[in-house]
Amino acid sequence: MNPIELEWQHLKKDELAGKMFDDELELAYAVIDGVQARGERRSFSTHRVKFNSTIYS
User: Fold this and answer.
1) Which of 49, 33, 52 is nearest to 41 (CA)?
2) Could you list the residue range(s) of the whole structural domain that residue 14 is in?
3) What's the average model confidence in pLDDT over 27-55?
């Protein structure tokens, strides 16, 4: 299993479990918040990367 898969597993189990989302944007924000919360609890720094989506249009 890749390291990111293990993190995703914990994110789903610990941060997102039992929650319902109205749309993909709400889920995306919950994932961002969950990653940040996990990082803070484990004393890791997190950095959000934004990709330029216009190059893929």
Assistant:
1) 33
2) 3-56
3) 89
Please work out, in degrees rounded to the nearest 5, the angle formed at the alpha carbon of residue 26 by the alpha carbons of 23 and 31.
125
Residue 56 has pLDDT above 70, yes or no: no
Residue 49's pLDDT is 86
Alpha carbons 50 and 29: distance in angstroms, whole number: 13
Of 46, 45, 44, 35, whose CA–CA distance to 12 is shortest?
A: 35
Number of domains in the chain: 1
Q: How many CB atoms lie under 10 A from the CB of residue 30? A: 15
- Distance, in Å, from the CA atom of 53 to the CA atom of 56, rounded to the nearest integer, reads 6
